[in-house]
Amino acid sequence: xxxxxxxxxxxxxxxxxxxxxxxxxxxxxxxxxxxxxxxxxxxxxxxxxxxxxxxxxxxxxxxxxxxxxxxxxxxxxxxxxxxxxxxxxxxxxxxxxxxxxxxxxxxxxxxxxxxxxxxxxxxxxxxxxxxxxxxxxxxxxxxxxxxxxxxxxxxxxxxxxxxxx
Length: 165
What we know:
The chain is of the alpha/beta class. It is built from four helices and six strands. It is globular and about 45 Å long. The model has no long low-confidence stretch (mean pLDDT 92).
């Protein structure tokens, strides 16, 4: 995501979370960041905060113009919630991703996923391994990964990168 001297317009979803706040603190000066969060955000240099409590039928005007990249961090981070109330996990992770990533105009998407998609496997794991997660949390994360792959395959975005922490 290097644009030389040209500023890059970057959307960070889930900007109020642990990783999102660190991205806002340390983003390159050439990024014009729009930070999307369900909670109020503290002011950050070079960041336009947009609060979105729920995915609306109409996207907020701040995210209608095209982006060079989306860093998609939004989703449920509570593994226990996914087990206790899987519908809430799907709403916070898969449904939010589908509602945003299929409607926001961008060239690239970076997704923060989870190593939970490897749960139950033994031995070395990696991106080329065929996975079939069974736990609800991993299923919703894998859905988002597959959604980004589908957007690339259908030329809706130029590229996608999945990071499994």
